[in-house]
Amino acid sequence: MKRAVEEVGRIFGDVGLGQFQLSLSSPVERGDYLTVIDELHGKVLCQLDDLKRKSDLDLEAAGALRPNDEAPVHESLLGVARIIGFRDGQGLVKMPTIPFRPGAHVFRAEEPLIAEVLGLKHHANTGAYVGLLRNHNLRVELDINQLVQRHVSVLAKTGGGKSYLLGVLIEELLRHKVTCVIVDPHGEYGSLRVPAEKNGGHARFGVESQGFGRQIQEYSPDVSLNPSAKPLTFSLRHIDPRDLLVFMGLTNVKTFLAPLKAVIEAVAASNPDYTVHDLVRAAESGEGAIAETLHERLEYLEQTKLLGPVGTSLNDLVKKGEATLVNLRGVAPDVQELVVARIALTLFENRKKGKIPPLFLVIEEAHNFAPQQGSVTCSRILKNIASEGRKFGLGLCVVTQRAARIDKSVLSQCNTQLILQVTNPLDLKAIAQSIEGLTAGMTEMIQSLPVGTALITGGGYQTPLFCEVRPRATRHGGESVQIVAA
Ligand SMILES: Nc1ncnc2c1ncn2[C@@H]1O[C@H](COP(=O)(O)OP(=O)(O)O)[C@@H](O)[C@H]1O
Ligand SMILES: [Mg+2]
Question: pTM for the whole thing?
């Protein structure tokens, strides 16, 4: 790491309380940490937010140059730095109250100051180790209680490293025996059971390979396609007619509730252990458009095989300190929505009653389950969990490559954001709108983040920070498929 007293430039021009300009005498990268000594408070931490090379070479002079000519240029490197602050005697981050003096020296920040002001500390019991501060050897840990109490979003374009980072997060949660339920539409997280192959290039992160097979259980509505999973079913008897309508994809409760109840009552009177097939048979004889729709939707429900005489029990589905994968690989999108709706509802209701431990519910491809436009079966319950789950110890984590397409109210309830590379302008706009404290420079940096570097906001930190994601202890399951062999 760089020497403590390396001077990198001088402040010039008009100096504000939030940011200042500096002329740079040595190369500093955007995002690097700097220090200025404040007359009243001593060392203040700042961060380079923008850089520009100014020159006196104008268009005409540049145009007149011949291929081998040296360009006669006077150039200077101009930086814009954002003031992060200093820790006061009570440990609070404060900002200077008087602007720095023009001409003041600007130094490269020392690691102890960076760690102190950003609040980077090692917490053996409550810290989820996600990586190292970019260009430094300082551990970035997310506060596990905050993760569960204040919701998380993981945002990046396809291939940006969302699933990899989520894998890191789940490893940490499992190390700390936090109960998780993971909605896994592609069946990628089963690889959390398998230790990663040894990779000597990652020594700086200090991560040992480790599998979490003992703490992972997997359920799927389709076990023929996903043989490592146990069957996920719901008990017909325990689903009231209103929820049954949800399962059938019928939103018009006023129209369909009474006719459905009539069918159920007729069947239940003669056979208390009725099946969906019995309901289908009973609905067959009904006449008119409503009865026909009811019949058709019951037949659809029967095909999904989701409802049986005994459903997966809650105590099997949620195990304290373990992660449950809900593998939805190969399951039709509307059935996926039904499953997510039912599971989310069950978790929320039982968490309210304290029947299950506090837990972390992860929704991959969340734009499909809580879309901004239109509504799907599970939209409402996910919005409820986003707004009220924290009161009951139900943390939500949404993962998506389309920040613009996920419900805005859900996104804005996430107080910890893990952002990897995003290039789509609409997604960037949605991110900028939902996150406080992002500077224009940071939004620009998000567009060119290398794979494996994340911008973290919240999570116990007062200021956004760039983190090099640590290597996985387990194998990553979401490797891109090679279509043509190398
Ligand atoms: N922190 C990282 N370190 C090393 N490789 C990574 C990292 N993050 C992602 N990758 C690699 O990048 C690729 C895409 O990552 P993935 O998490 O599957 O993307 P996404 O889920 O955003 O589509 C994977 O092949 C993965 O191995
Ligand atoms: Mg992925």
Answer: 0.89
